[in-house]
Each structure stands twice: as structure tokens, then as C-alpha cells.
Structure to design on (160 residues):
């Protein structure tokens, strides 16, 4: 599942935290975060539908929804801060919402990784097999060239 935009959500929440001193930037950041979450929700639905076991799919779906709620609160606090840019209580709430979004992103990532264990095991095994094949090819190349020392008078062609 392509989740490259998933890493952008904590970046936007961090930028929102930094924009506490410059609230006019919050609208654009909130809009971008909303778009990125929309992409994540679509991809998350597909990942949850194909996840095995079914429990992992439920976990992905639940965590993506929780992240959505966190994003909603963050966007609401950003809007509130734009309305009243000097309110220190709203600034503090915005920072707390940004932290919560970052935590929820890590929970979504862990759910996606849990659903990916079988795939990762296959990738690791395929990589190991490719390494063995490459080593065998190298050995064959040296043996064909005659650079390997034979233990007796047999040639490589006899064993090939």
C-alpha cells in the first residue's frame, strides 16, 4: 500500500504547531492535511479489505478512523486560532491536537506493518534466494574460467 503521504500528516501537524505564531498559514496547511487524509482513507479501506487475518483489517480501519477524528480536531483548532490568533488556550489545544495526530499516524503505521508481515517475509526470502543465486553465478563464472583450484584432476565441466 503506498503510504508515502502518511508521513506528511505529522509534518503538517508540526507545521501547524509552528504556525501558532503565524496563524494565516493554518488554512493552507489544514486544506493539504485534509486532502492527504482523504487519500489515506481510500488506501486504508483497500488495505483493510485485503488484510489477513480479518482482525488486522479491523485494526487498520479503526486506526485510520481515529486518525481522521484527530485530523478533524486539529483542523477545528486551526480555524479557531485563525479567528482569535492571540488566544493562548487555543494555541495550547492546537499543539496538543498536533501531538495526538502524530501519535495516531504511528498507530496507523504499526497496523499496516502488522498486516504486512507475510509480505515482508516473502520479500526477505526472495532477497536471500537472489543472493544465493548471485553467489552461485559468480562461482560458476570463476569455475568456467578455470580460476578455482580443483582438489583432484577433475574439471568443472565434469560436474556441471
Amino acid at each position: 500500500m503506498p503510504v508515502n503521504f502518511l508521513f506528511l500528516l505529522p509534518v503538517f501537524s508540526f507545521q501547524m504547531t509552528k504556525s501558532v505564531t503565524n496563524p494565516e498559514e493554518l488554512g493552507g496547511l489544514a486544506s493539504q492535511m485534509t486532502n492527504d487524509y482523504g487519500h489515506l482513507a481510500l488506501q486504508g479501506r483497500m488495505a483493510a479489505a485485503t488484510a489477513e487475518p480479518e482482525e488486522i483489517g479491523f485494526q487498520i480501519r479503526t486506526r485510520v478512523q481515529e486518525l481522521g477524528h484527530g485530523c478533524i480536531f486539529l483542523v477545528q483548532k486551526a480555524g479557531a486560532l485563525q479567528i482569535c490568533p492571540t488566544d493562548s488556550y487555543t494555541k495550547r489545544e492546537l499543539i496538543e491536537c498536533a501531538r495526538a495526530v502524530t501519535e495516531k499516524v504511528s498507530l496507523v503505521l504499526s497496523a499496516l506493518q502488522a498486516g504486512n508481515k507475510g509480505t515482508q517475509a516473502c520479500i526477505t526470502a526472495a532477497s536471500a534466494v537472489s543472493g544465493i543465486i548471485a553467489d552461485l553465478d559468480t562461482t560458476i563464472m570463476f569455475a568456467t574460467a578455470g580460476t578455482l583450484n580443483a582438489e583432484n584432476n577433475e574439471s568443472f565441466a565434469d560436474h556441471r
